[in-house]
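Dear colleague,

Thank you for sharing your sequence with our group. We've completed the structure prediction you requested, and as agreed, I am returning the results in plain text so they can be pasted directly into your records. Please verify that the sequence below matches your submission; if there's any discrepancy, let me know and we will rerun it promptly.
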Amino acid sequence: MIENEEIIRLLKESKPVYEPTNLDFKKAEEISSSLLETISAFSNTDGGDIILGIHQKKDEPLKFFGIQAAEDQETKLRNLARNEMNLTETDFQLSTENLPKYDLPIMKIHIKKINELIRRPIFIKSRGIESGTFIRIGQRDEKMPKYMLEDIRKQQMILDHRLPPPELRVENNSKLDDFDFSLIKQYAEKLNIGVDRDTKPKEYLNFLESKNIIQNLHPTRFGLLCFSFNPEKYLGNKAVIQVSDESGIDILAGDRGKNKNIFEGDLLKIIALSMDWIAKNISTKRIVMEDGSQIEKPIIPAQILREIVVNAICHRDYDTDQKIFIKIDKDKISIENPGLLNYKMYTYNFIFPGKTEHPNPNIAKYLFRNTSAEGEGKGFSLLLKSCLAGEIDIPTLAVDFSGRVLITVSNKTLVNKEIEIWLETKKYLIVPNLNENDKKILAYLYKAHDLINSGYFVINLSEEFLDYQKKNSLIKLISEKLVVSKNIGSTKIFKLSDDLLRQDFSSELHELFGSDFLTLDAQSKQILSFAMQFSKINTEFSARKLTRLLYPNTPEEKLSEDIARRIRGKCNWLLSENFLKRNDTIPISSPKGNLKINLDYKQEKEKEELMKKQNESEKKQDKLF
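Please find the predicted structure tokens below.
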């Protein structure tokens, strides 16, 4: 639970306080429905602390209100938690406390994450499970999607042994004759086990039963997927991969391209067909070798491509009759997987490499024995290493509300132009002479922050998967207080410091420009916030540089002239109103730019007002004479 000393420190801050996912301040004049939603959200996500009696409006510092009739409010809340949400004393800890120098008390609520083995969602009973179950996304409480509720229900049934895992469900219409014995024999040989269907039928059946290929003489889905002649005959789309290479297609919006191919067959066959198709259709780049020779290589390493295809098959939901979709764009590959990330793999939208528990462990073990994919739980660590090596940009995972997972891997650079500009604006905070590994760590965490705020999942920067140089860079950045760490059980997550993430300088700008700042539109305020950052490093800027900062996720070729013209127009207007100035010693045509914030705004305005009054006074004097 957050300590009172930390709360007092935050109350003394003169600038807005960044609330992490697991901390929420509420005014709470009375116990409201939004408080119950937050309690549900914290319980179903990662737990956390709610502080009642303190509130923060947007772009303003924390403000103390206290709790009136605290004893009555505490009793009411305890009853609601017990009767309306089935929370026990171990799930939910409540205390009313007094802070020094404040007349009224505050209420502190500490909420534990629900027991993962029980996997019961905490919901507001009067609203029902679908409308009353919430999760925490960033600083917001959102209704838990139906697919998550269904996943929890299935997981509970599997844990209670009321339902076998999807890969081990039998297909009653299928027969042992549907198996391709040559595939089973190859698998047995890899396990150093001899099988003979004709001369030793009993031992053969025992082998199939022991490896979950059959149950009660009926093939399982695992058995059909890996060893049958035509798995699609019984399993439909569960045994199908569809590929396309049409650019500009949004898979999650249901648009999957025109140049389609469909691959059917056992899992090793459809993986081989998919990899062959990807190799023929993905863009390539020319690599100059040490001896001067040149070779063509795919823009994304082949090992990464194979890994994400195999992982999609391992993690998909084999209860759902949907295909896996692969789409190639000019600089990226996207794979849509009809299934879910295992809930033990992630928290705070960070995916933890090596923590995976495959929903289909038999399929996973079979594929890792028969392909060159990484071992269990190591696929995400491979993506992380490849990203920090500069081979790919930060991989992203999105989950839509029907439960489809979309992983996208791009060959763009991790430390790109936008990152270099961002680092430039933060020079007043950053130690000089950042090396390339320092930049990669900062770039990864900066992009991760943006993606998580947009609802994506990203791979956690796990120390155990960093090489020696990058681990040293991480230690250095933590010592310089540019990166902070937080323990979640036995795992650490790393984030940029609040100062590095800070984009809003409204409080300082309000002090500089007075009430005139409050009248500005949102984009003008954004421009001035960036201008303030440049002023801290005593550097001028251009409208073009601002455009890159204002639209960091928009590719250069998509930054239309209309957008650039609009930003130039805003800058010119801010110049005309004296919010910005030009450094006349630098030519307007300079690529670095010659714009800067007007730090003398107040003095100039006061001087202007004084001259205006003097002119009015002189006019009155003239009239008298």
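Summary note from our side: The domain at 506-605 is CATH 1.10.10.10 (Arc Repressor Mutant, subunit A).

Kind regards,
the structure core
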